[in-house]
Amino acid sequence: MDKIIIEGGKPLKGEVRISGSKNATLPVLAATLLTDETCILSNVPRLLDTNTMVKLLKSLGKDVDWDKDKLIIMSNGKANPVADYKLVSTMRGSICVLGPLLAKLGEAKVSLPGGCVIGVRPVDLHIKGVEALGAKVDIDAGYIIAKTKRLQGNRVYLGGASGPSVLGTANIMMAAALAEGETIIECAACEPEVEELANFLNEMGARIKGHGGPRIVIHGVKKLHGAEYKMSADRIEAGTFVLLAGMAKSDIIIRDFDYHQLTALDDILKKVGVQVLVERNSVRIKAPKVLRPVSVTTYPYPGFPTDIQAQYMAMMSLSNGVSVVRDTVFPDRFMHIAELNRMGARIRREGGSAIIEGVKGLCGAPVVASDLRASAALVMAGLVARGRTEIRRVYHLDRGYENIDKKLMALGASIKREKE
Ligand code: UD1
Q1: DSSP conformation letters of 277-292
Q2: What is the pTM of this model?
Q3: Interatomic CA distance for residues 345 and 30, integer angstroms
Q4: Domains of the chain listed by start with CATH number
Q5: CB-side exposure of 193: number of CA atoms within 13 Å?
Q6: Are 345 and 382 in contact (CB under 8 A)?
Q7: Pocket of ligand 1, candidates 131, 167, 187, 312: which has the most ligand atoms within 8 Å of its Cβ, to mutate?
Q8: Nearest to 206 by CA among 155, 256, 153
Q9: Ligand 1 in reach of 26 Cβ (< 6 A)
Q10: What is the pLDDT of residues 71-108, one digit of tens each?
Q11: Measuring CA to CA, which residue among 314, 307, 286 is closest to residue 389?
Q12: Contact 135, 107 (CB under 8 A)
């Protein structure tokens, strides 16, 4: 296992290019199961999670080859409906093979992903959705076993206790693409990654409208064909660099992504005092001398993303007052508090909220990464802290940030990787 060692306090300067979106790539890869024809995806990020999805696709009857940032996905004629526990348990995103397997093969046996450090993470909405399309679903020995002759279009409400589900919407949209008749998803997730999946499905011959909004209408078709598609940039990676630049008071240009996908963050940053100069596909960050404390609540898109909550908390730990961060999407996503506090932050948890008293500076310390975005928050804290920070279990970081250490080194950070 690798650990990352950072000598903090180095000035950061220069340009960074944002990689392809992880959360868009995973469901798009799953969607290739809906056809026997070849699909070619470009701008695919080389991440642990993409590799896990590639392994899963291989186990389900695909040959998958990398060609630089391209993935070429072909059927090998041995379609298999069983998504094994070993692969699903390492990455929750694997659940989005349920809809495609069921729609294409008439059966799917997908391991229940289980919880993780950011919360319980139920899959009731996925199951409710495929049942509404006529599948018979059983849970047996830790697996979801779903069967159908042919899925039938229906009206499905996908709102849960914490709002819509991103991968739930993805799963039902993919299943409905090959169902008989019309499906209407109400309370669909509006995340850009859902929109991107629908665009890819439409390239494959699906008939989907309304994606990007809360009501998606899908006219089922008999067959989908192969397609070529370029993945868009990762808005969460971009948001992480925007926050880092503001927090490190550095002059960084962040390139090749769509800043409009971060409107909620932009709104908050204005109040914090961070200036974002937007040019076509890039932004330049001008950090203020003093970061003002601004409270934030996470919501489904277009609200403030839960996936940059930890990074925002790292920034607020250096504000000149008290702020509150509340996560309505994953109310238990606070494992990073204890580790940030080891670095001198003053944060306490009260229910689904974190109360952050800004401090003047952070100090390097040995810390442990607990999940993907928490790791990013610790890297950010390490980069601005006095002294040396050692972050263990960085495989979490490698799940979602392509070449993060190389990108940071190019900006002037002192960061290296060592085997534990
Ligand atoms: C996706 C993202 C993840 C992001 C999350 C919310 C991927 C691979 N992952 O995860 O990075 O943090 O969206 O933006 O794209 N819920 C239920 N029942 C369900 C499903 C979800 O109650 O069947 C709840 C969850 O516990 C959570 C909320 O709904 O409270 C949102 O979760 P969801 O949108 O499903 O997250 P994912 O799609 O798994």
Answers
A1: EEETTEEEEE--SSPP
A2: 0.97
A3: 40
A4: 2-18+233-419 (3.65.10.10), 22-230 (3.65.10.10)
A5: 28
A6: no
A7: 167
A8: 153
A9: yes
A10: 999 999 999 999 999 999 888 899 999 999 999 999 99
A11: 314
A12: no
